[in-house]
Amino acid sequence: MKAGIHPDYREVVFQDVTTDFSFLTRSTLGSKEKIKWEDGNEYPLIKVDISSASHPFYTGKHKIVDTSGRVDKFRKRYAQK
Q1: CB 47 within 8 A of CB 17
Q2: Any signal peptide, and if so, which residues (predicted)?
Q3: Which residues contact 12 (CB under 8 A, 6 or more apart)?
Q4: Which residue from 2, 33, 36, 69 could staple onto 45, CB 3.0 to 4.6 Å apart?
């Protein structure tokens, strides 16, 4: 591998903001936010809207997650007049 062209691969914590589920893994993503993990170390925190704890495929529950108002825009645009 060439030196200096690859992104930094480090441990980060991903947190599902809808369920407060968190997990520690490795990624090239970075963040200015930090979180203290169970092992006592601080890791960069990446917040996500959907994870395995909240995705309908894994939970078996159908739930509409609309963080940017797309569903309301669609309903307003195609409403029966």
Answers
A1: yes
A2: none
A3: 24, 25, 26, 27, 29, 30, 31, 43, 44, 45, 46
A4: 33
**Predicted TM-score (pTM) above 0.90:** no
- Could you tell me the residue ranges of all domains in the chain? 10-77
Cα dihedral sign, 45-47-48-53: positive
What is the number of helices (H) and of strands (E) in the chain? Answer: 2, 4
Model confidence at 39: pLDDT above 90: yes
Give me the percent of the chain exceeding a pLDDT of 90. 36
